[in-house]
Amino acid sequence: MNATWSRFNITSIVLGFAFLYLPIVLLIVFSFNESKLVTVWGGFSTKWYVSLFHNQGLMDATWVTARVGVISATVATVLGTLAAITLTRYTRFKGRVLFSGMVFAPLVMPEVITGLSLLLLFVAVGLDRGFFTVTLAHITFTMCFVAVVVQSRLVSFDRSLEEAAMDLGAPPVKTFFQITLPVIMPAIISGWMLAFTLSLDDLVIASFTSGPGATTLPMKIYSQVRLGVTPEINAACTILIAVVAIGVIIASIANKRREVQRQRDEQAAQRG
Amino acid sequence: MTDIAAAVSPSAETTALPSRLAQGFISRLVIIIPYLWLLFFFLVPFIIVFKISLSQTAISMPPYTPVLDFADGISGFLAGFRELNFDNYTWLTQDALYFNAYVTSVIIAGISTVLTLIVGYPIAYGMARAPASVRPTLLMLVILPFWTSFLIRVYAWIGILKPEGLLNQVLLATGIISQPLIILNTYTAIFIGIVYSYLPFMVLPLYSSLEKMDYSLIEAAKDLGCPPTSAFWKITFPLSLPGVIAGCLLVFIPAVGEFVIPDLLGGSQTLMIGKTLWNEFFANRDWPVSSAVAVILLLLLIVPIMFFQRAQARAQEQDK
Fold first, then answer.
1. What is the CATH number of the domain that holds B152?
2. Which of A231, B42, B253, B300 has a Cα-to-Cα distance from B174 of 20 to 30 A?
3. ipTM of the complex
4. What sections of the protein cross the membrane (chain B) (predicted)?
């Protein structure tokens, strides 16, 4: 143990993590509550999960949310990666300041402003509100997060690898697909996952830009929460948390394994 | 390293002309696609918001009168300029409700930002001083709640803060209080909600600047007889300032326009501008006034947003 990692440091980490995780743990525990009251324990039960799967409205909303999430995250990852390349590789072109402003501002822009402005755009160009408009809105705000994630990987990327490939005669496009892309792939994957969860999570922008027939899960949860807190919502939330947690854990294990493999290869190369 | 490679590499000079043209075309495409997307879906909408904020409500779909329309040709467009009216803005300044909502939002966001910094700093510091082998795990543990739904995490606090909720049950059972505390539907609940939801945004930039710090500076100060507290204020804190600024902006700017937290935890008694805009739009169906509210909110935030962008650009330069 590092001597400088004092008792104060450990205490603040433990307390901080308790604060971060306690509400989530309680939420999960009470999804298995027999009683309808969300705060009084009445015995173990899985009945809320059963009733959840019979709630057609909630199931439909889940399906809409999943589709919006996959489509918007995929498009946002492509656009965000292009934006990241632009930001790191092309340091001089007309309107670069405006471009970096448009990439960074959406990260902190209050959602009510983004939602309202996109809605007014869709109305102005005459697009019917629904599945398509929510997807476009989600692409727009999540691509900036992807751009930041990919950009941080590109900045630390050793460009001499690319130079070497091009010196050996590889055209730039081939160099990109064979050298650059594999190296920044982990960042692209985590960018996709970030975009997907942000889309899954969004209530405000979806409420503004969605129309009849395209109710997303957060919109459904929000309208039910307003009517009163029920354990069914806890059950829905627990499933969402489980899906995300499993995804993140699998991704980090895969990442770690790749890292170990890479180190082993490097050692082997040095020995050889 | 990269500079040397760039200087030594002759590739730019030796590449054949046609392929250089193709490269120029592709690189232009790489810039143009995200550029146009953001122009159309991020910048143009703001112009439309401003335009609609100058119109009047009407009972039609969309529910506002046309303003600065090109339907009458250029002369009609120019004539429209003379007829522009800022009634919605005058109305916003005359009604104390809106002014109070703006001021309250800025104050609440400011206090919450300071609270988040106070809660987040020890966590980030503890993480940065942790053994290098534990750090990735700690980092993942900070990020993990961020991956779970924001709405759900705010919702979880309702069950804790309610008068008959878990916090009051625990405090009553241990005899610390004799009457249940009223926290839900007050500003206190909003503070708790913002600190809780935005904590990872504060911890991550703080951690990355604290981790880069050279701790031998602290050792040196200690050897020279500097007490730990003044070593912290004279060395650690100033060196972590970029992280402090980035973290505070990441919390403050979205918190000013926050809707979900004041709506779910603040109840009907509390007043914040994000909620006012939402109600103006969804309950009153007054698109022009909600646009005017959005324009003023944006003007309020434009300076902090520009600070944020410059801080980001500078951090990127340093990483190179």
1. 1.10.3720.10
2. A231
3. 0.84
4. 25-50, 101-125, 137-161, 181-207, 239-261, 287-308
